[in-house]
Design a protein that fits this description.
By secondary structure, the protein is mainly beta. It contains three helices and ten strands. The protein has one domain (2-17, 38-231): Porin (Beta Barrel). Strands 1, 2, 3, 4, 5, 6, 7, 8, 9 and 10 form a ten-stranded antiparallel β-sheet that branches. Residues 1-20 form the signal peptide.
Length: 232
Amino acid sequence: MKNIFLLFGLLVLACPTSSAQFREDPILNLQNEDKKFLNWGYYLGLNQYDFQFEYKNDIGRDILVNKSIGFNVGLIGEMRINEFLDARFEPGLLYTSRTLGFPGFANETDAIREVRSTYIRFPLLIKASTRRIGNWKPFITGGVYTSMNLGSKEDSLDDNSSGEFRMKKNVYGYELGFGIDFYTEYFKFSPSIRGVFALSDELVPDDDPNSPWTGNIEAMRTRGIFINFTFE
């Protein structure tokens, strides 16, 4: 998680226009950009997804999650509410991979499950901004989302006894974040960090209620962090 925050900071500082935005009296770019009722754009970004497990019994052996960095891409539709508030719809595609390590197994074939997920996400967000300061403007954002996991294998007849880790296809939750709008000469560039928190249980348990993989899991929910770079 620390690595992705560090990467965010380095990318923002490396932006060729970032230092110019903070001058005392900059030439104002795109002065009418935020007065439009409707605005459109797209975003590219990175993600790091984790799982939060709830257990039926505390047996002192937690499931380990090895996280990797994935990518996300999507479109933006923004509706202006007033000077400080905007409603945003940000449908997108996200790919991530997590490796689960289950305790109590003698061989790696049974202990390790690689979970690759491709989500189609539909977030509905509110963006609250400060007053514009020269060519930059901080903001916070938050809202709810629903997503479809194309790699869920929810309908598969196989389970972990056959090497198949299953997840539910439909997920919903909420996300919170913050960022900065930079007004360049030709477009608005907005790096942001988002925290993503699933509310729905994503686990499809094994057919055996005493399964050594899922028998002690009460619920499994996604937790994740995004770094998004928006161009409008």
